[in-house]
């Protein structure tokens, strides 16, 4: 499409918004250069999820010192650790609605403001009530806004050929946040009890300010702009996030066609996924909600938050040694997440999910058997550590990063933000149930019993993936209804 045609279609402001087409072609002709701007934007958006996981996982080690400093009971620690997942529901259910009205970028800025306020409140807390209030504030910003809107933004700004990588970036940053929280636990564990855990949380006050400032310089999602009728601005963003002007024109044409079809055939409510007779929409909704249930039901988040208790159950005594091992967990997660990211656009979503769910099932069962057998010994500790690392590796290569990608790309445009809100709500509610009941459940059915239960849930997830999930690699976002009609 020429610039003259764009002016005719979108208005006289186009020459002011777009550089000439020639500026987007490589010097001397030849193949276009691979676009990097979308990668930069997706990276910056994903950094919000790093702060989410840092604040959530920090409790893994900080609880050892908070318990001693504030004289909290086991029940209070259990509630404090898992409550953030429940508090997130307050904003998760409204995040999609807000992102559709204010835009994806604006909601990400709001998320970082809540993260800063929550970290500050947590670091200054002096009672159980104050810490619960801090977890509530952090929960609103981190998962309610950050975890819902980041995958929406990354998916909508990506090309089909790189969508798997770019939409998986948030998983990389989630796990960077996990690793940083473990490092913080270890680094400040030697400080006085009343000071160390406060510095752990205080370290999370400044980064949200810097990330929010960077997000303000990002473009808005082109699909959100097109939904608002701002086609010239949407095309300007697509030019910056595509390899060639022709690709940008094609992407805009597909988006406009999808919007036109929606206005002709659909109502604008998420309940259309449930109430209308479209088999593909019902299947999409079932896939989103079921996957978001199975991910936390695998029990990996219980390992992430209660790994010190697991290692102590195997016989480890030193807090310092326990916190050192947790850093290895964070490093393993990042390494295998990177492997998964490199494979998702090469091998597809479905093979990674099948390999990951099978791996978690086997390794979780091995962990349970290790804790069942024999008295505490050095051998048992080593096998327990190896089993935990194997669980984390199996989970990270597919389960941890493919589900966000898969769910964000299969939902239709007008329902993407709201539909993901529903999925994340199920995810966080299940996660809260797992993390807030782990200690009590371990008392009731033993810790090995917990892990056998989680292995059974993951085996069920393998069956669901095998039976119900089609492959989406290389598909246009606007083509998913056809795929799920098969």
TrEMBL record:
Record domain Major facilitator superfamily (MFS) profile: where: 41-473
Localization annotation: Membrane
Molecular functions per Gene Ontology: symporter activity
Keywords in alphabetical order: Membrane, Sugar transport, Symport, Transmembrane, Transmembrane helix, Transport
Main location: membrane
Membrane topology: Multi-pass membrane protein
Record-annotated membrane-spanning stretches: 37-55, 75-99, 106-126, 132-153, 165-183, 195-218, 321-343, 352-376, 382-403, 445-467
One GO cellular component term: membrane
InterPro entries on file: MFS_dom (IPR020846), MFS_sugar_transport-like (IPR005828), MFS_trans_sf (IPR036259), STP/PLT_plant (IPR045262), Sugar/inositol_transpt (IPR003663), Sugar_transporter_CS (IPR005829)
Pfam families xrefs: Sugar_tr
Annotated family: Belongs to the major facilitator superfamily. Sugar transporter (TC 2.A.1.1) family.
Name of the protein this chain belongs to: Major facilitator superfamily (MFS) profile domain-containing protein
Species annotation: Urochloa decumbens
Lineage of the organism: Eukaryota, Viridiplantae, Streptophyta, Embryophyta, Tracheophyta
